[in-house]
Every structure is written in structure tokens, then in C-alpha cells.
Amino acid sequence: MSTAARTEPARRAEPSLTLVTDRAREAGDGREPAQRHTDESYAGVLGFVRKLADRALEDLDSAIARDPAASSRVEVLLTSPGLHAIWAHRGTHALWSLPGGRLPARVLAQVSRFATGVEIHPGAQLGRRFFIDHGMGVVIGETAEVGDDVMLYHGVTLGGRSLAKVKRHPTVGNRVTIGAGARVLGPVLIGDDVQVGANSVVVKDVPAGAVATGIPAMIRFPKRDAANQWVDPAIYI
Ligand SMILES: CC(C)(COP(=O)(O)OP(=O)(O)OC[C@H]1O[C@@H](n2cnc3c(N)ncnc32)[C@H](O)[C@@H]1OP(=O)(O)O)[C@@H](O)C(=O)NCCC(=O)NCCS
């Protein structure tokens, strides 16, 4: 045997494509790998579209639940500038996190502002079932964070008090309502279930469950209805 023949590693037989395909078919459900890949891609796209539709429906239903003047999903879909601004924001926010997406996101946010009167910076993080009633004049800054089931009326500002490029806008908890014209300024924490009165100016943290009214906002806790506090909660179900 020659030296070359001794040092050359033994070559393994490469499995033929047909063999691989056959194995995949045996191991799987009878589809070709390429077909399976295509099917999975379609399923991914369909799942994404279904999720978007479900989210849009829950936004419409939460608007109907909070706006006594709204009578149907179609009416809200066609006439709610607050909801249009929120949906536009969901797109610009996704764009904001992509490489090179920041400028297009800002431009589209500007178009949405022109159409709805609501200015939401694409960097702001908004939760689910968020609703802005009437819309006009709302401003939400870049580093604002908003929880789920929050409602703002027109003219609300979630703004900053610092020019430094740091977290400078409010963090709003879940189930918070902020009345018309209220200003919430700085990186303050607004706890869950807080109500901020119309035209109030909030510059300090507000604890969960409180009502904040006035300039600067004073905190109070709503009194429990003494007559009803022992009522069996089952009657509300
Ligand atoms: C703050 C708010 C949630 C309080 O509701 P509430 O708990 O039912 O409070 P009450 O109406 O019982 O008022 C309690 C006290 O707060 C005062 N108050 C209520 N809202 C206030 C406000 N925005 N600014 C200053 N004081 C206010 C009341 O005058 C009352 O004072 P008093 O105890 O000295 O009489 C409500 O008044 C509010 O401002 N909601 C926003 C609604 C809105 O923006 N609507 C726009 C529709 S287009």
C-alpha cells in the first residue's frame, strides 16, 4: 500500500438526496422537506395575521366598553381618531426597533399626528386595550411606558421635564384613567388603578388606587361605599 493511500482519511459515503428525502418522509408526515418548509411559513404568516386581527378586535371592544357614545365596532373602526393613532403607533413602534427604521418611523408618526391630532413618539411603549377618547392634543413622549387597559382623554400629555437623553417620561400602570387636559410630567410612576383628574398636573409618583387632582396634583384615596362593602360579590357576576 502506498503512503498516500495510508494517510488519506477513509471517505464516508455521502447519503444521496433521495435517501435523505425518503428518511424525512418516513420520519414525518409524508411531505417533502421543501413543502413542509412552505407550509410552516404560511402557518407563521396566518398565525401573525390572526393575532393582529384578534388584537384589533380587543381594541375595538375596549373602546366600546369605555365610550358610552360608541354603538358598534364598525362605528369605532371608522370614527375613532384615538384608536387610529394607537394602531399607527403599533406599526411605527415595530419599525422603530429595526435597523434603519427610526427615520421612517418618525415620518409615519408625523403623518399619523396630522391625520389624528395625536402625537405618539414611536419609541413609547403602550400596553394592550389602550384607548384614547377624542384624541386631539394628546402627546406621549419617547420613553413613556403605559400598561394594559389604560384610558386617556384628549389633551393629555405624558411628557418630560428634562432635556437629557434618559428615561424622562412617565410609567403608567394598568387600568389607569387620565382625565382631559391632564399633564403627567417626568419619570414618575403612576400606580395601577389610579385616576388622574381633568386638567391636573402630576409631577410626583401616585400610589396604586389613588385619585390625583389639582395643580400640583393632591392624592386622595376614594372611600369605600360603607353600605355595600359586605355585599356578596357574586351578585355582580
Ligand atoms: C378626578 C375624577 C376621576 C374624580 O372623580 P370622583 O372620585 O368621582 O370624585 P368626585 O367627583 O367625588 O370629587 C371629589 C373631589 O375632587 C374634586 N375634583 C374632582 N375632579 C377634579 C379635578 N379634575 N380637578 C380638581 N378637583 C377635582 C371635586 O370637586 C371634589 O372636591 P370636594 O371633595 O372638595 O367636593 C374626576 O372628577 C375626573 O376629573 N375625571 C376625568 C373625566 C374627564 O376627563 N372627562 C372628559 C370627558 S370628554
Q: Can you describe what's shown?
A:
This protein has 237 residues and is of the alpha/beta class. It has one domain (44-235): Hexapeptide repeat proteins (UDP N-Acetylglucosamine Acyltransferase, domain 1, 3 Solenoid), CATH 2.160.10.10. The protein contains six helices and 14 strands. It has a six-stranded mixed sheet. The chain has a five-stranded parallel sheet with strand order 1-3-6-9-12. Strands 4-7-10 form a three-stranded parallel sheet, with no helix packed on it. The site of coenzyme A has 12 residues, from strand 13.
Tell me the structural class: alpha/beta
| Hetero compounds | coenzyme A
Encode the helix/strand succession as letters: HHHHHHEEEEEEEEEEEEEE
Globular, elongated, flat, extended or rod-shaped: what is the shape?
elongated
Task: Give the C-level CATH assignment.
Answer: Mainly Beta
Overall pLDDT, averaged? 88
In the CATH scheme, what's the topology name?
UDP N-Acetylglucosamine Acyltransferase, domain 1
Radius of gyration: 27 Å
Hey, roughly how much beta strand do the residues contain? 5-15%
